[in-house]
Amino acid sequence: MKGSARTTPWRIRRLGDVALAMGTGLAAVLVLLIVAIILGDVIYNGAPRMTLTFLTQAPREGMTAGGIFPAIFGTVALVVLMTIAVLPAGVATAIYLSEYANPESRVTRLVRVAVNNLAGVPSIVFGLFGLGFFVQFVGVGIDRALYGGQRVFGQPALVWAALTMAVLTLPVVIVATEEALAAVPRELRLASAALGASRLQTIARVVLPQALPGILTGAILAISRGAGEVAPILFTGVAYFLPKLPGSLHDQFMQLGYHVYVLSTQSPDVDATRPILYATVLVLLLLTFALNATAVVVRSKMRRRFAGAVS
Amino acid sequence: MATSSESPVERPLDQAMLVGLGPSKRPSLPTRGPPPVRSSDHEHHGRAERPRLASRRPRFHALAEMAIRVLAFSSIAAIILIFVFIGKEAWPLLHDSVIGREVTLAKMWFAQQWPGYDAPEHIWQPVSEIPKYAAWPLVVGTLKVTLIAMLVAVPLGVGAALFVSQYAGRRLREIVKPTVELLAGVPSVVLGFFALMVMATWLQQVLGLDSRLNALVAGVALSFAIIPVIFTVSEEAFGAVPRSYVEASTALGAARWQTIVRVVMPAAGPGVAAGIALGLGRAVGETMIVLMASGNAAILSSSPADSVRTVSATIAAELAEVVFGGAHYTVLFFLGVLLFGFTLATNLLGEFAIGRMRRRLGGMA
C-alpha cells in the first residue's frame, strides 16, 4: 500500500475524500438531529403546561393536577447541601495537586488515578455506597451515640443523599478547579513570592481570586450534574410524595428527576399525567441547561481574561 | 463593594509583573492591567477576613495547609470507602451459612434444577416462593444493551469527531461542539423518559416489534448518553495529532482522506480507544435509561427485540424493597461490586491507552 498515493488516479482521490467527508458529516448531522428531536419534543409538549402556578404549587389529585413545587424545593435543597460539602474537598484537592504536590510523585499520581476512577464509577454504585456507608454506618452510628438508638439519622434522609451526591460530583469540581489554577500565570505567583508572601498567602490572595471564575464553573457543573442524577438518591433519601417540605437534614425529600421517573413508569393513568410529566421534564432540562450555559459563559470569560497574559 | 480595599494588593503585583516581563511583552500590559481590578468586585466579595489573615499568620497557616493536605486525599478515601462498604454488604454471600441456604456463588452462575422445570435453567426470580438468583440473565441483558449502544454510539461519536476535527469549518464546529455538550448535559432520566414515551412507540411501529420496551430501545437511548463521551475524547485525540504528521503526508502526495485514514487515525488510535473504553464503562453502569426503557424482564435470550433486565436496573428496581441484610440484599450488593469492578477496569484501560498515546506522540508536537 505504501507509495500508492502517488499513483492513485485523481478521480479516486476525489471520490475517497467526498465519501469520507459525507460519511463523517452524516454522523455529525445525526447527532445534531438527535438533540434537536429530543429538545423539540420536550419543549413542544411541555411548554403549554409550564405556568407560574405549576412551579409554585404542590401536586394534587394523585399527581394529575397542581404543580411540582416540592420537587423543585427538594432538588434545590439537595444541590445546596451537596455544594457545601463538595466545594471544600474538591478545591483543596485541586490546590494540593497544582500548588503543593510534586507532579511526578507517587502520591500525586495515586490521587489523580483516584479522581479519574471516581469519575467513572456508575451512579447506581454511589447509591449502594450511600446506603451502606452514610445511612447504615454513619447514620446508625450517630443514632447510637446521640439518640440512644432511636431512629433519626439512621434512615434515608436529605443529608445522606446530599453527601452521596457530593462524592459523585467531587471529580467535576477537582478537574475544573485544577484547570482554573493552571491557567493563572506563573508570573503572578512569582511576583507574590518576591514580595515576601508565603505560599499560602499567595494562594489565598493571588491565585484563588484569579481562579475564582474557574472554580465557579466547577461548582456550577457539579450542581448541574447533581440536579440531574437520580440513581444515587434512590435509596438514600428521595421520596415520591411528601405532604410537607423537608424541614431538617434528616427528613426525606422530593426531587425533579425522581418525580419524572416515578410519574413515567408507575403512573396508573398515563394520559392524565402526561402533560405534567412533560412540563416537569422541561423544568429539569431548563434547570440543567441554564446551569451548563452559565458555566460555559463563565469559563470563556476566564479564558479571555488570561488570553493576553503570558503563560 | 470591596474593590477599594483590593487595589493596594493588585497594584504592586501588576508593577512587579512589569519588572519581570521583558520589554517585548510590554505592549500587551495595558490591556491586562485594569481588568483584574474591574472584575474583582464580583469575585472578591465576601472575603472580608483578609486583614485578619496576616495578623494570625502562624497558627492559621499551619492549620490551613494541614486541612488542604488532608482534604486532598478525599478522592482516594472515597474510592476505598466505596470498595469497603459495598464489599462489606456483599461479603456474607461468600461465607454466611444462613444466606448460603438460599443463594451461593455457584447457584448464581450455574444452571439450577428448579421444581416444575424439565431441565436446569438460569432464572432470576428473587421474589417468589423459592427465590432464584441466576446472574446470567442480568449479565447477558447488560451486555446486549451495551453492545447495541456501542454499535450506535461508536460510529456516530467517532465519525462526528472526525468530521469536526478534519472537515468542518469554524462555523460548523461551533454548532456541533456545543450541541454535543448540550447532549452531555441532558440528565439520563430525561433520556430514559424520551425513550419510554416517544422512541419506544416509534420503533415498535416502524419495526413491528412484539414488546414495546426492549433491548433495542434501551440500547439506542443509552447510546445518546455515551455519544458525548466518545465524541469529546476522540475529538481531543484527533486534535492532538501533530500538524507535522499531516504536512509530511500531504507533501508525499497523499490525498486528504488517505492522510486521515493512514496517518491521523492510527496516530489518534489509542485516544479514540480510550474514549470507547470510557463510553463502555459508562454504558454498562448507566441506570436510569435502562431502568425506564428496557422492559425489565430477566429473559435469557439473544434477540434485541426481547425485553431485558440489566444489572444496574436490577439494583435500582429491587434494593428499595428488600430485607436489610437478607440474601436478596446481599446479592444486589454483590452485583454492585461486579459493576464497580468492571467500570474500574475499563477506566484503567482507558487511562492506559491515553498514556500510551501521549508517550507515542510526546516530543513530536
Molecular structure report:
The complex is a heterodimer of chains A (about 300) and B (about 375). Chain A has about 300 residues and is mainly α. Chain A is about 75% helix and about 0% strand. In chain A, helix 4 runs antiparallel to helix 9, helix 5 packs across helix 7 (about 160-185) and helix 9 (about 200-230) runs antiparallel to helix 11 (about 270-305). The longest helix of chain A has about 40 residues, at about 270-305. Chain A is globular and about 65 Å long. Chain B folds into two domains: about 5-60, no CATH class; about 135-360, MetI-like fold, CATH 1.10.3720. Chain B is built from 18 helices and two strands. Chain B has helices at about 5-20, 30, 35-45, 50-55, 55-70, 75-90, 90-95, 95-100, 105-110, 135-165, 170-185, 190-205, 215-240, 245-250, 255-285, 290-295, 310-320, 325-360; strands spanning about 125, 130-135. In chain B, strands 1-2 form a two-stranded antiparallel ribbon. In chain B, helix 6 runs antiparallel to helix 18 (about 325-360), helix 11 packs across helix 13 (about 215-240) and helix 15 (about 255-285) runs antiparallel to helix 18 (about 325-360). In chain B, about 45% of the residues are buried. The model of chain B is unreliable at about 1-55 (pLDDT under 50). Classes of the chains: A mainly alpha (about 300), B mainly alpha (about 375). At the A-B interface, helix 2, helix 4, helix 5, helix 6 and helix 7 of A face helix 1, helix 3, helix 4, helix 5 and helix 6 of B.
